[in-house]
Design goal:
463 residues, mainly beta, seven-stranded antiparallel beta sheet, 5 helices, 6% helix
Length: 463
């Protein structure tokens, strides 16, 4: 018997939607392949985290018959994608759940949108650990043999996408392992693009945390986020103050030295969300200094060296003409969230679809029957009403316009709602069917209009 591994994922962290999900093996012994009922059985073990923060392991087996040369390939994409989902609410484990300066004492009876996290939030299944093995099953002299071969332990997969346009290019996972001043949080929107926010706006960054190993190698890399520092600047670039968010269990994160993909109990902290918007900062007891025009967000390791690039946020007010600002959060292609403010004219309409029926105008009492003018005729037995919002951007740069394409195609979009207590984000659906890329060469001024529909209907009575 001569078992060989021909192809398997070899990155430190792998997007669930990419070419890095295919396993190819071979049995080169023609004698073995010729055995009765010879086949490969691929076993996929998925490690995730449940509501209580405990590790959960699921097992799945798939049978693949080899070709005449003994080769067999298995694509684990579907099973991995079924498990990888970006978090929509703050982690509700035993040590986590920070919101509005309140910790785990409010859980699990109260649950909050992930966008409103004030410190860190761990994840449940955005990033999962996968172990793949294969059995070469056959029967010899009445005995079933299943030799066991591990195809790699401790694969890390996350709810990210590698665009098909990249072809055979490998996903650049090291770009997102935070261990240098050019490394990036989980967003394709470049650090060079200013994020525009108001004092009441929420914003999160997702990032890899702790140690990841390369399957088939002794190499490992650590995403070194000891703390995130927010530096507030005035209009001339002078520092007005700082706010530091340490990555530890008190702040609902977990130190990088304690987090590794090899330990099932710390997978929940291998990807973290950090609250970095003005409202997130204020809710954790911080403050925005007077005269702040911009602020920067950057992560640092335990020695004080920068472990990420610098991200700049610009504080803005609502449009002076009184236009309502529509702030949307949307799932980006790296499994985190990006945000955008539509600051120009917006309209809100309610689209109602009524189900009609005819009522009998005759009232039948216990003693007599009579026709009444206040009953009967056409009536509504069901009314489905949804709110539709059309919003406009300001004039924006070509880079901003390119980044907006993710919003138009995102399957998961939310609108910030600060009219409720506590603040929240409501799910919406983008109803625009086309996105037209605007460039400086073709469009001197670039402006976009987006139509969204609230996912939940307005509640009305029914007959």
């Amino acid at each position: 018997m001569a078992f060989q591994i021909f192809d398997r994922p070899l990155k430190f962290v792998h997007p669930a939607y990419s070419k890095h999900t295919i396993f190819t093996v071979r049995e080169s012994s023609s004698t073995t392949v010729a055995q009765s009922g010879f086949k490969f059985v691929f076993e996929v073990r998925i490690f995730t985290t449940d509501e209580n923060g405990d590790s959960v392991t699921d097992y799945h087996r798939f049978t693949v018959k080899p070709n005449s040369d003994g080769f067999a390939s298995f694509d684990a994409a579907q099973i991995i994608q079924d498990y990888c989902t970006t978090d929509t609410e703050i982690f509700t484990g035993a040590v986590s759940g920070s919101h509005n300066n309140t910790h785990a004492s409010v859980f699990p009876t109260e649950r909050f949108s992930i966008h409103t996290v004030d410190r860190y939030s761990r994840q449940k299944s955005n990033l999962i650990k996968v172990v793949v093995a294969v059995y070469s099953q056959y029967e010899l002299n009445g005995t079933v043999f299943m030799p066991f071969n591990v195809l790699g332990e401790d694969y890390a997969f996350f709810n990210g996408v590698q665009p098909l346009e990249q072809g055979s290019t490998d996903f650049d996972d090291l770009k997102y392992i935070l261990n240098g001043n050019t490394k990036e949080f989980l967003t394709y929107t470049s650090p060079t693009i200013e994020r525009k926010v108001r004092l009441g706006d929420y914003h999160t960054f997702a990032f890899f945390n702790g140690t990841f190993k390369q399957v088939g190698s002794i190499l490992s890399f650590t995403s070194q986020v000891n703390h995130i520092t927010i530096t507030f600047l005035n209009s001339t670039g002078n520092t007005l103050g700082t706010n530091t968010l340490t990555n530890n269990s008190f702040n609902d994160g977990l130190g990088t030295s304690s987090t590794t993909i090899e330990d099932e109990d710390t997978i929940q902290a291998s990807l973290l969300y950090a609250g970095v918007g003005p409202a997130n900062i204020i809710n954790r007891g911080g403050s925005i200094p007077l005269n702040t025009k911009t602020y920067t967000v950057q992560s640092f390791n335990s020695t004080g060296a920068a472990s990420s690039a610098v991200y700049t946020f610009r504080l803005e007010e609502d449009d002076c003409k009184g236009f309502e600002t529509i702030r949307l959060a949307y799932l980006n292609r790296l499994g985190g969230y990006d945000y955008y403010n539509f600051t120009k004219k917006s309209t809100r309409t309610v689209d109602t679809n009524r189900g009609l029926m005819k009522h009998n105008p005759v009232h039948f009492g216990n003693v007599y029957a009579g026709r009444q003018n206040f009953i009967g005729g056409t009536g509504v037995y069901r009314s489905r009403s949804v709110e539709i919002i059309e919003a406009n951007t300001d004039y924006i740069t070509e880079n901003e316009a390119a980044a907006l394409e993710e919003l138009f195609t995102s399957p998961n979009v939310y609108i910030q709602d600060t009219t409720q207590s506590p603040d929240t984000f409501l799910p919406v659906v983008v109803t625009e069917k086309t996105y037209t890329k605007q460039t400086t060469a073709n469009d001197a001024l670039k402006q976009y209009v987006i139509s969204i529909e609230k996912s939940n209907e307005k509640l009305t009575q029914r007959l």
